[in-house]
Amino acid sequence: MAKPLKRADGPQSVPALLHRNAKEFANAPAYREKEYGIWQSWTWSQTRDEVEALALGFLELGLDEGDFVAVIGRNRPYLYWAMIAAEMAGAVPVPLYQDANAEEMAYVMGHCGARLAVVGDQEQVDKIIEVQDQLPDFERMIYLDPRGLRKYDHSKLDQYTAVQEMGRANREKHIAELEARQAKLNYDSTGVMLYTSGTTGKPKGVVLSNRNIIETAKSSSEFDNLKRTDEILAYLPMAWVGDFIFSVGQALWTGFCTNCPESADTMHVDLREIGPTYYFAPPRVFETQLTSVMIRMEDASRFKKWLFDTFMAHARKVGPAILDGKKVSFMDRAKYALGELMIYGPLKNTLGFSRVRVGYTAGEAIGPEIFDFYRSLGINLKQLYGQTEATVFITAQPDGEVRSDTVGVTCPGVELKIADNGEVFYRSPGVFVEYYKNPESTADTKDAEGWVATGDAGFIEESSGHLRIIDRAKDVGQMADGRLFAPKYVENKLKFFPNILEAVVFGNQRTECTAFINIDLTAVGNWAERNNIGYASYQELARHPQVMDTIQSHVEEVNRSVAEDEMLSGCQVHRFVVLHKELDADDGELTRTRKVRRKIIEEKYADIITALYDGSKQVSTETEVTYEDGRKGSIKATLEIREAAVQPTSHQMAAE
């Protein structure tokens, strides 16, 4: 039987946490936003007033208990407030990915039956108007930025500030009802509904209770000793569970300040200005930042590049040990201190990481080389493993026990077990309530005792208790000769190179592995400019002979590294192609969180995969693409298929 759940002693809901903070931390900063180049700030007391005014406005618009409110846009305090206000009014907030297209939004809003939508700007208004005839439950839209909307039909369209003013003007009319709805909220009330990224099918609505949110925020904050004085930068998609827990759950539990950048274009400048002490990013962000560093070093003088390479080699040798408080010789510490003054400190400042006390990466596996690079600088970057269904936290790395090859130990209150087939299962106070309107998937994922199937294959180290994830359980397979096939392991190694943006490895039930490669247009384009190589398109640059030679050298270097791992040595890449287009979420090849949709890619590029295995030297293909304005088109290309040198494995030598 499942363990009985305890009742909380403190606040029972997200709005209750806000009221507590407004009372106890009244004048402390709660949210900041940069607008027109100036940081605006709201205290906890002001935030409570803003949220309450919006919640009262919701009631004036007729929002009922149990209704769903879609929230769409970039990270802004107003949209975080909209989620809290929705729950305060007894409704359920449903954040959506702002870069989702109109059809994707129609599916989510139609599935949950959203009556209201709070959106950031004209772009989101237009997308909902485009599909509103598919949404029988949808009634009104509230927009934040009025630019471009003056001549729109406002019969079902309200400005955010006008709804707040409506709420303030009708406070006496609705305050008793609002307080009554808040009083009903408890640990088992729904706090938010977040949709999965839909890697294998249609997104599922994950119902998270206040218990899930508050217990997870409490235990994870205590795990890393998060404080009210910490600062975070909220820039990741609001529809993603990680952002919700960091920017709402943990922020409300600890009382720290959530800072919102002015735009995606100014994010790195704003990151430097804020200097967060608590920072989270998926591997792709760290990969992009590392690529930017490497590009700049390629443009540096010979002396500066020598200085950088020399001190970074020393940092990789002793940096992580110094960070973990381990024994390091006086001379090595002295040289590292000099490197901190000349290289590491300025580099951390450029990246915006000078004050980071706790940093995490998750979402997918990060390449060990990338992970070690940041830790060598003295940045306390750690790995955590989680899911939307777990309210993020399953395992995390404690300070002093950080390794690139594990995802840490169980978080407080979490239990783990490994099934006979290697799949990881967990249960915890963060385990989701259900998939909305999907009892079959709920039963498939969560059993009667509360154990949840992660879909990932891994094992727990007996000596350390750390969890090691091999790959997605459905992606882990066998080569034709029985050796283990784990594509993500190889893909992460390939993506360490700044020239490679994305990689997809094939080989399940085959005699050898092959790969698709996407070049990083920023890194490779910079190289082309330095060498006076002209190009008119991604496709032209991707098939340049020197680019192909460079990618081949990267693949062969990865093969040498993979060959050293006896368990995975069969995953060396024998042949590869550099694709003629970037894999794109708009084309269905990636999820909105940029996870590879392998099945779709295998179907869409079946002709290229066939050519990789039939000995062809090249392949002609035509691919449908979606342009930014939604129009469809196609790209034709003839792709070169390259052979990559592989290393002999112990398995092969034994066979001989």
Describe the 3D structure.
The chain is α/β, with parallel strands linked by helices and 656 residues long. The chain has 3 domains: 14-215, ANL, N-terminal domain (Rossmann fold), CATH 3.40.50.12780; 283-354 and 356-472, Rossmann fold (3-Layer(aba) Sandwich); 477-655, ANL, C-terminal domain (GMP Synthetase, Chain A, domain 3, 2-Layer Sandwich). It has 22 helices and 29 strands. The strands form 8 sheets. Strands 4-3-5-6-7 form a 5-stranded parallel beta sheet, sandwiched between helices. A hairpin with a 6-residue loop joins strand 24 (500-506) and strand 25 (513-519). The relative contact order is 0.08.
Briefly summarize what is shown.
The protein is an alpha/beta fold. The chain folds into three domains: 14-215, ANL, N-terminal domain (Rossmann fold); 283-354 and 356-472, ANL, N-terminal domain (Rossmann fold), CATH 3.40.50; 477-655, ANL, C-terminal domain (GMP Synthetase, Chain A, domain 3, 2-Layer Sandwich), CATH 3.30.300. The chain has 22 helices and 29 strands.
Q: Specify the CATH class of the largest domain.
A: Alpha Beta
User: Which CATH architecture of the largest domain would you pick?
Assistant: 3-Layer(aba) Sandwich
Tell me about the largest β-sheet.
5 strands, parallel
Uncertain segments are 1-7
